[in-house]
């Protein structure tokens, strides 16, 4: 197993574990020479790989070069394990779209489908079958395009060495072959590129219906049996792709791509439009009326498109930790009357719940409580999310000091769920809020052998770190947050971890611990590259450079922060401190004056963001460098 901070092969700095693929554990790492992020994927059952076979497989994947594929670089051996090295792809996988319940408009689905068909036509032309197409292996990049990842169980179409399957997305023939292999049953069935056609179709079946497919359910309804807001042509293409009988599927990926390309020609609405075009010279009045109808329909479609685009963007902002944009986008959706008929109950719940999460993760518990409270009316119909919702709502109430209302939610949890671990977690939060940190830790210790979800384990280790930080046990706080990252890595746990390293750096007797500062800097660099720096992030990031003697880099970060958050007095205060550290009196005085100007213009909420100690420091610097009283 690899751990955060390990350097492998003198080249790869391990950031964290990010999941499990079809054939092994996956780590994100920083390539020290190329100065970019990559993925190290540990192969399971590495001892079963002959060096020749492994070299052949990796070389065949290295030769794949396509816009919608990550680049495979090589493989390395480390302590008896084998790791393949692959490009790290930014973005959000389709599984997250499914979990959120977001409606994907037809034009977007067709775009992604065509891109996937295009890349699979290329992959198949190289003699490779992916064999593991599923929502989690399809990334939507920040540009809105797809990237097909994880060739862990791919096989050569000539050798047809089947290594595994995905329970809900593999084709019937792939599932059957694996079953035969596992039970020693001879079989002549040889999966080919039609297995990728099935998996692609069933992935979009799940995306369009929200219903998880089941290969063992021979009565699973076809897509056409659902009442969906998609064209019959698109539904028919998906239904053809997921036929259990290969003879009824598309013969190859080119054929499926062509069917998508021909959609417009086959669509009855398109044919009617052509007929109307031909008749324009004869039926002018009819055409005018038709034109009015088309305008009305187009206006409605534009509203749907705009709503879908904003909702999708909201999800991205939440994933990236971009608080300001997430809040602004959500509020626009919630208050836009044009969207009322499009925003379904599930989406309404998800927006309110997510806003509660955003405020909670940024320690704004009063607003978190308000949004959790508004989401309450929808929670009964949200079975999958309800337990997490009740837990987080209760914790937000506790953190906001409303113990009476929190107890009501705890009582509701006790009535609804037989498991009492959630109640223990909330009580540990109460102990923390009341300053009983060791008692809180004791309750968390009692959950050591409990069966908990990844989300619950994540929350427990974050709470451990909060308790340890209050007790000044910063090394233990760092260790707890490293464990939290193993269950879920998001911008919020990274911020806490960077903060814990800063506390550790400042806690060194008489000196500043440069190693801890370097660790904190590395995490802020990760936030900068993968998420969105907040004002606090940027200020702390700059300090990791200033305190290690790199004032130019500290100033670069603060200046970029000023471009994003103009007229923020705290940014100019830290600019003044940084210029002062390199004895630039003129710039220090200028920044002190700007900091005072923006402070006096700031609202009460903004003014509350600075501690009395820091405000006294700023006033003292202003008096010293500007030769004036505050």
Discrete helix count: 27
> Strand count, sense and closure of the main sheet?
6 strands, antiparallel
| CATH-defined superfamily of one domain | Transferase(Phosphotransferase) domain 1
Q: What are the segments in which pLDDT stays under 50 over at least 5 consecutive residues?
A: 268-289
- Overall SS class: alpha+beta
Please tell me the overall pLDDT.
83
State the CATH architecture of one domain: Orthogonal Bundle
Strand content: 5-15%
Q: Helix fraction? A: 55-70%
Placed side by side, the strands forming the largest sheet appear as 1-2-3-4-6-5
CATH class of one domain: Mainly Alpha
- The CATH topology of one domain is given as Transferase(Phosphotransferase), domain 1
Total strand count, please?
11
> How far is the first residue's CA from the last residue's CA?
56 Å
Q: What global shape is seen?
A: globular
């Amino acid at each position: 197993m690899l751990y955060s901070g390990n350097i492998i092969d003198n080249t790869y700095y391990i950031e964290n574990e990010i999941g499990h693929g079809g054939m092994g554990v996956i780590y994100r790492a920083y390539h020290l020479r190329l100065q970019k992020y990559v993925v190290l994927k540990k192969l399971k059952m590495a001892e079963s790989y002959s060096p020749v076979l492994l070299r052949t497989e990796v070389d065949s994947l290295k030769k794949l070069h396509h816009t919608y594929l990550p680049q495979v670089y090589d493989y390395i051996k480390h302590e008896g394990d084998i790791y393949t090295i692959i490009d790290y792809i930014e973005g959000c996988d389709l599984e997250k779209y499914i979990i959120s319940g977001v409606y994907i408009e037809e034009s977007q689905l067709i775009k992604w489908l065509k891109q996937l068909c295009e890349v699979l036509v290329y992959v198949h032309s190289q003699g490779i079958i992916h064999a593991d197409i599923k929502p989690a292996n399809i990334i939507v990049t920040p540009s809105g395009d797809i990237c097909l990842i994880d060739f862990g169980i791919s096989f050569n179409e000539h050798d047809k060495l089947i290594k595994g399957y995905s329970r809900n997305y593999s084709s019937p023939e792939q599932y059957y072959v694996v079953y035969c292999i596992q039970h020693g049953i001879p079989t002549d069935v040889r999966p080919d590129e039609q297995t990728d056609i099935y998996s692609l179709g069933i992935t979009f079946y799940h995306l369009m219906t929200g219903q998880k497919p089941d290969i063992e359910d021979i009565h699973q309804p076809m897509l056409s049996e659902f009442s969906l807001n998609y064209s019959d042509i698109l539904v028919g293409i998906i239904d053809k792709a997921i036929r259990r009988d290969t003879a009824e599927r598309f013969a190859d990926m080119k054929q499926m791509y062509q069917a998508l390309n021909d959609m417009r020609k086959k669509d009855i609405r398109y044919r009617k439009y052509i007929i109307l075009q031909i008749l324009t010279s004869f039926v002018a009045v009819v055409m005018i009326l038709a034109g009015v109808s088309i305008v009305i329909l187009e206006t409605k479609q534009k509203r749907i498109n705009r709503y879908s685009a904003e909702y999708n963007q909201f999800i991205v902002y939440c994933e990236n930790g971009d608080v300001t944009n997430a809040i602004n986008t959500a509020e626009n959706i919630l208050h836009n009357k044009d969207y009322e008929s499009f925003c379904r109950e599930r989406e309404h719940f998800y927006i309110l719940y997510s806003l509660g999460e955003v405020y909670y993760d940024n320690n704004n518990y009063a607003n978190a409580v308000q949004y959790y409270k508004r989401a309450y009316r929808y929670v009964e119909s949200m079975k999958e999310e309800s337990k997490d919702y009740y837990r987080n709502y209760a914790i937000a109430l506790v953190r906001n000091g409303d113990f009476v209302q929190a107890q009501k939610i705890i009582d509701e949890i006790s009535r609804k769920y037989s498991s009492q671990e959630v109640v223990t977690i909330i009580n540990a939060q109460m102990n923390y809020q009341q300053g009983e940190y060791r008692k809180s830790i004791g309750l968390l210790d009692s959950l050591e052998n409990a069966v908990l979800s990844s989300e619950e384990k994540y929350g427990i280790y974050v709470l451990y770190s909060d308790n340890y930080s209050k007790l000044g046990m910063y090394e233990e706080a760092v260790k707890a947050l490293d464990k939290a990252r193993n269950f879920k890595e998001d911008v919020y746990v990274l911020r806490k971890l960077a903060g814990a390293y800063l506390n550790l750096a400042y806690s060194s007797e008489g000196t500043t611990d440069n190693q801890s500062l370097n660790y904190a800097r590395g995490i802020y660099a990760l936030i900068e590259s993968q998420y969105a720096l907040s004002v606090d992030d940027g200020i702390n990031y700059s300090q990791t450079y200033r305190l290690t003697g790199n004032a130019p880099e500290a100033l670069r970060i603060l200046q970029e922060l000023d471009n994003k958050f103009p007229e923020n007095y705290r940014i100019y205060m830290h600019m003044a401190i940084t210029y002062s550290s390199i004895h630039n009196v003129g710039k220090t005085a200028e920044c002190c004056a700007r900091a005072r100007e923006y402070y006096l213009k700031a609202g009460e909420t903004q003014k509350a963001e600075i501690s009395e100690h820091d405000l006294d420091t700023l006033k003292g610097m202003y008096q010293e460098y500007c030769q004036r009283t505050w």
